[in-house]
Amino acid sequence: MRVLNVHLADHSYDILIDHGSLSALGQRCAEIRLIGNAAVITNPTVAAFYADTVASSLKAAGNNVTVIEIPDGEEYKNATTLNSVYDALIEAGIDRKSFIVALGGGVVGDLAGFAAATFLRGIPFVQVPTTLLAQVDSSVGGKTAIDHPRGKNLIGAFYQPKLVLIDTDTLKTLPEREYRAGLAEVVKYGVICDLPFFEILEKECSAIQAMDQNVLQKVILRCCQLKAQIVEQDEKESGLRAILNYGHTLGHAYETGAGYGTLVHGEAVAIGIALAAHISMSLGHCSSDDVARIEALLNAFKLSFEPPAVERHLLLNALTTDKKVAGGTISFICNSGIGGHIIEKFLPEQLIALAGLEV
Ligand SMILES: NC(=O)c1ccc[n+]([C@@H]2O[C@H](COP(=O)([O-])OP(=O)(O)OC[C@H]3O[C@@H](n4cnc5c(N)ncnc54)[C@H](O)[C@@H]3O)[C@@H](O)[C@H]2O)c1
Ligand SMILES: O=C(O)C(=O)C[C@@H](O)[C@H](O)[C@H](O)COP(=O)(O)O
Ligand SMILES: [Zn+2]
């Protein structure tokens, strides 16, 4: 098992990376004194594969377990679903000594995490991520949220989990499209802060796509390490943490503009990364060779970065609600070469023009 601690004063926690570890969840929770009533929040797709294992493990460790299913899809990461979760938590008698388990991808993790942050003004929660994207990114760092029709993750809280348990075996049932989407966030880490890691991704591209356990676990560990290092320095995104938003400014605009669920998050991020790389080049922050390498890696992971046709006003609307907007200007994350970052500021209209999306 690979173990990584996220050091955050009085709310530090472990990330446990292994294969076949789902059945030890109850024991791992008990080790950090999470025992009593557990509410497992998941969706029908994930539940069909893993809810029994998780519920049995929690019961064997002495918990009463309630499984709460929410509909599957980004289009349900909203206030209506959140309210239905609050109803189910009340119905199940969940109290402040209880805990929530988020079993699923980033949609379940973000919504269940926000439910945990707000229910009874905050109860403990554990992340059990079952997509690659959630294992390398969304389960770590404490961003929890629901979407608003006007923009992604507009209602949320910074609220850290008590534990992240990553069982890489769960990826065996993940659709290929979702696995590929997760690789976009993996590429992000290399581009913004780790050239040697980017080079490993180039070299190990086939092994990663074949889900070679050893290589895969190293990749997940490296992503979690990089994210943890950034979050430890700037938990609530007053500065540095914004670099984790590389590829997301325009990516989120496409994800929202195309309609939630049309592009999955990682696909939108791949589009955003390619656009950010071109903008970085036009500002002199990287070379055309760097852009070609970034695009080649996205291509190698079969990630399309061709932006779909989305009307300009929809992109602009989404950009104006981005959480990085302050005083009308938006902070935009550029890559500096490969492995570095620079933050620029633009008006949303300028950004559309710079990205060549005027038509
Ligand atoms: N909080 C953060 O820091 C953060 C970071 C990145 C992304 N996000 C958010 O995460 C969300 C995207 O997450 P995602 O890519 O995991 O998508 P997702 O949660 O929608 O999961 C993708 C699909 O895979 C299915 N699935 C999940 N695990 C499975 C498994 N093991 N086997 C079979 N099917 C499985 C799901 O039911 C879903 O249909 C977005 O809402 C995004 O905004 C949050
Ligand atoms: O953890 C972060 O910080 C990130 O920005 C990670 C992103 O991959 C993730 O998609 C995040 O939810 C985006 O945050 P937002 O603040 O732009 O909603
Ligand atoms: Zn993301």
Automatic annotation (TrEMBL):
Record-listed E.C. numbers: 4.2.3.4
Keyword presence, NAD: yes
UniProt enzyme class: lyase
Cellular compartments annotated: Cytoplasm
Gene3D superfamilies registered for this protein in UniProt: 3.40.50.1970, Dehydroquinate synthase-like - alpha domain
Needed cofactors: NAD(+); Co(2+); Zn(2+)
Sites where the protein binds NAD(+): 72-77, 106-110, 130-131, 143, 152, 170-173
Cofactor notes: Binds 1 divalent metal cation per subunit. Can use either Co(2+) or Zn(2+).
One annotated GO molecular function: 3-dehydroquinate synthase activity
Predominant cellular place of this UniProt entry's protein: cytoplasm
UniProt-listed Pfam families: DHQ_synthase, DHQS_C
Residues in 3-dehydroquinate synthase C-terminal domain copies: 182-325
Pathway(s): Metabolic intermediate biosynthesis; chorismate biosynthesis; chorismate from D-erythrose 4-phosphate and phosphoenolpyruvate: step 2/7
Function statement: Catalyzes the conversion of 3-deoxy-D-arabino-heptulosonate 7-phosphate (DAHP) to dehydroquinate (DHQ).
Catalytic activity: 7-phospho-2-dehydro-3-deoxy-D-arabino-heptonate = 3-dehydroquinate + phosphate
Gene from which the chain derives: aroB
Keyword presence, Nucleotide-binding: yes
Domain 3-dehydroquinate synthase N-terminal per the UniProt entry, residue ranges: 68-180
Record-stated family: Belongs to the sugar phosphate cyclases superfamily. Dehydroquinate synthase family.
Keyword terms of this UniProt record: Amino-acid biosynthesis, Aromatic amino acid biosynthesis, Cobalt, Cytoplasm, Lyase, Metal-binding, NAD, Nucleotide-binding, Zinc
Listed name of the protein: 3-dehydroquinate synthase
InterPro entries given in the database record: Dehydroquinate_synthase, DHQ_synth_AroB, DHQ_synth_fam, DHQS/DOIS_N, DHQS_C
Binding site for Zn(2+): 185, 248, 265
